[in-house]
Structure prediction request, 468 residues.
Amino acid sequence: MTVRTDVLIVGAGPTGLALGIDLARRGVDALVVEKAEGLFPGSRGKGIQPRTMEVLDDLGVLEAIRAAGHDYPVGMIWHDGRQVGEHRMIDPAEHGEAGVGPWMVPQWRTQEILFGRLEELGGRVAFGREAAGLDQDEDGVTVRFASGEPVRARYVVAADGGRSVLRRALGIGMTGETVDPQPMLVADVRITGLGRDFWHVFPPGDSDGFLAICPLPGTPDFQLIAQLPRDATADLSLEGVRELVASRSHLAPEDVTEVRWASDFRPRAALADRFRAGRVFLAGDAAHIHSPAGGQGLNTSVQDAYNLGWKLGAVLREAAAAELLDTYEAERRPVAADMLDLSTSVHRGETRRGAATSQLGLGYPDSPLTEDTRRTPSGTVRAGHRAPDGDLGGTRLFDAFRGPHWTLLAVGTDTALPSLDAPVVRTAAHEAYGPGVFLVRPDGYVGWAGGTAAGLDGYARRAGLAVR
Prediction:
């Protein structure tokens, strides 16, 4: 028997779960499948940037994420068993409208929270389902699984990681480079003898790489990251981790009491040649692989999902033209390319974490979905920019934007507005926007801006928004 669904999401990482949430709240029948028997158990992607916190607010999980994490701790530099100075790991950064950032939460906990929200909305994840290949035609895609039972979907999203089976089945290549020739070890460990107020940094000696041990919020665990010699093979056992820690710090081997999860990798930066093939889309690590430096990978991945979700919903539930889906690659691939350059620059010490890595300045000014008819805009916000918050006298603009809908915003004007399938918000003034009319997309970016509403109804039809 073939299972049928509107959207099949392959991979239950942060990308797949965020997309599942967005589709569930839009009433789209979607199935998330995951080859593992459960959620990812490690802390790997622990940094959540301010823009992603805003996305998580809209998806309904901000309070849980805030409760599960805390600000990045200050680094403490050690030498010969002595604390020799503090080191700010992150420059002061602009906070988003969610009020925090960057925020540290172990990846496994972020995924637990997203999974709970998906189930709350009636979504589902089928574990133990390993994709083996696919076939597609004009009407849909059939994905084959190692277990035998296929799934037929109108659209498929490959969120199955850097070694994506579906990307390879589609024949889509990745172009990239090795960011660092030295392999890395990352592990979640239990350690005695270190305080939890600092991110402990042990600089490299003459013959080894650095060691960093960071307390993970909401847990008794630390995340350990170590740079290994170029030709070394990582020993992920308790004994191997103990030996590494004892050789690079003042800690004794027995101070490492448990290794809860461990992995090794070589830092790479790679970008898929395409983000779409027919009815199949690539998202997250299947589309772009980052160095962990700068905390861009998970964040870029969640925002892939946030961009694609409303477009799939519009095509499947609101009768928008299928061409709307072409804008996913047009918008997200350039952003991913920029974030890869940024994470590589941070890894190599050329850029500091901070304002550059917050992702608040990302936008789609060159997108085919972006149109600004004003000749001389008086505010700083342009079409394609992230739509900022503002006071509405007891409520906030972000309260109006929250949800799966478009929002029609009129600032400092009583001009007539077309009747769109979008709530209308009028406000007397806002310095960032300036006077005018703004159509804010479901993902919080300004799609259209004008001094009046002339031409807005035509744009709305092209973007898949119903005109009454």
Remarks:
- The first helix runs from residue 14 to 24.
